[in-house]
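[job 4471] stage=fold_predict status=RUNNING
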Amino acid sequence: MEGVTKILGEPDEVEDLADNDNFNTTVLSYNETGISAFFEGIDAPILSCIEIDHRATLLFGKKAFEMSREDLIQHMNQNGFEDLDKEEEEWGESRISFEDGLIDFYYNGQELTTINFGVLVNEKGEIETL
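[job 4471] inference complete, writing structure tokens
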């Protein structure tokens, strides 16, 4: 977490999310920049996900939040990502994921609300490869 706070500064909010499996997630939220950093693990937390909702976010040189769903999917395909999954979430948002890029796009209706970039973390707190 220290590396993230060196780059982004002190977070506006810190939230600890413990689950029943003795696995902890800590979220550092930066409201002004629209970034949340998720750390997983208890003894040595590791950065597992970055969530972005900043409207000027660039994705391969284009503003992601200004693209339609169809344009975003085409843009991801043009940049080598093809393993597409779509799902309606319980809380009402819809999700478009590219498993080969570990990236999720969340929509409220037709509006892109957040982008999540992640890595796979095993039960030992180590990053795994696809």
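[job 4471] summary: The CA atoms of residues 16 and 26 lie 4 Å apart.
[job 4471] exit 0
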